[in-house]
Amino acid sequence: MTTSFNAPGPAPEPAPVRPGRKLGPIADTVSSSHRAWLEPTRKCYLASGRTLSDLSLGVLLAKSKLSELLRGVGHYPRWEVIHRLAGELDIPGWPLYRLWKQAAMDAGKSRDWVDRSTEGTTAVATARSGRPIEHGALCQMVMDGYLAYAGVFLPDDTRRIAVDDTFAILWLCFDEALASADIRRYAWNILRATVKAKADYRDERPVLAEAAFDTVALRDARPEEQPAQLAESLELFTAISRLPDAQLDVMVLRRLCGFPPEHVSDLLGIPLAAVRSDERHANRFLDDTVELPPPTGGPTP
């Protein structure tokens, strides 16, 4: 599934007018993991005012090949090229490398190919220096909630990758995130897009991950009650998966993760009244679909 990682924010300033042919759009065949680093990189290029001809001199890549790289056309690029591009556009190296490496593995590149591509730039690729203090503080604040949400849709080994990818994308877009109406909302939209891109789907709706069965209701149920509770949880999730995104997020956090409304408000970056409104509208739909259990008061340990 290909998902755009653009998050809502203030209207961007008009890009500087540059001579030459306009850069074409990202190819439809570009994967979600490739798009995760390509979109922020293109934004940096478009905002820089530089031309492909000028940029190609520093990147040491022909203008036509650089255009292909920025559209996701042709062979997946080696890190040494992306490293030079990041230097020319003043893009932080570590989050870009993390997302580039993840996309390389998703594209079928071997670890040997990745290691050879990183030769000479290992320090840049592994150093996290220069991370904004606000970025680190936000990541620490939302980590547990993000992992709980991602765990509803993804297995344990993938949910951590999705959250770490979210934080890397957020770092690349941090100036835009700070300028948005609410940085928590900006970050949550990235998380949702990242999780959706990695989730399994059936009938165009996300499928419940095995980890999601570790809900508060199931943990509290007596052994003889667990089969019925499991069937109820499956029915509930199937119904929740048909909700609009905003209501789905609220109900996953409230019903499956067990977070109180105030915590959900903080995670989503929306007013508490909006959380309650989304939950109220979702409950009206779910009441017609399943017998809804009462909400829990806290997250699953």
Secondary structure blueprint with pairings:
Elements (H helix, E strand, L loop, with lengths): L31 H17 L3 H8 L3 H9 L7 H11 L3 H14 L4 H8 L3 H5 L6 H21 L2 H17 L1 H6 L3 H16 L2 E2 L2 E2 L9 H5 L5 H15 L4 H12 L4 H8 L3 H16 L14
Antiparallel strand pairs: 1-2
Helix pairs in contact: 1-5, 2-3, 4-5, 5-9, 8-9, 8-11, 8-14, 9-11, 14-16, 15-16
Quick description:
With 301 residues, the chain is mainly α. It has 16 helices and two strands.
Notes on the protein architecture:
The protein has 301 residues and is mainly α. The protein has two domains: 32-126, 434 Repressor (Amino-terminal Domain); 133-287, Orthogonal Bundle (Arc Repressor Mutant, subunit A), CATH 1.10.10. The chain is built from 16 helices and two strands. The protein has helices at residues 32-48, 52-59, 63-71, 79-89, 93-106, 111-118, 122-126, 133-153, 156-172, 174-179, 183-198, 216-220, 226-240, 245-256, 261-268, 272-287, and strands at 201-202, 205-206. Strands 1-2 form a two-stranded antiparallel ribbon. A hairpin with a 2-residue loop joins strand 1 and strand 2. Helix 5 (93-106) packs across helix 9. It is elongated, with a radius of gyration of 21 Å. The relative contact order is 0.11. The model is unreliable at 297-301 (pLDDT under 50).
Instruction: Specify Rg, calculated over alpha carbons.
Output: 21 Å
H/E element order? HHHHHHHHHHHEEHHHHH
Work out the helix count: 16
Oligomer: single chain
List the domain count as a whole number.
2
The residue ranges in which pLDDT falls below 50 over 5 or more consecutive positions are 297-301
* CATH architecture grouping of the largest domain: Orthogonal Bundle
Number of strands: 2
The rounded distance between the terminal residues' Cα atoms is: 31 Å
CATH fold label of the largest domain: Arc Repressor Mutant, subunit A
Shape: elongated
* Main beta-sheet strand count, sense and barrel state: 2 strands, antiparallel
- Any idea of the CATH class of the largest domain? Mainly Alpha
Strand content: under 5%
CATH superfamily membership of the largest domain, which one? Answer: Winged helix-like DNA-binding domain superfamily/Winged helix DNA-binding domain
Helix/strand-derived class? Answer: mainly alpha
Strand order of the largest sheet: 1-2
Q: What's the average pLDDT?
A: 86
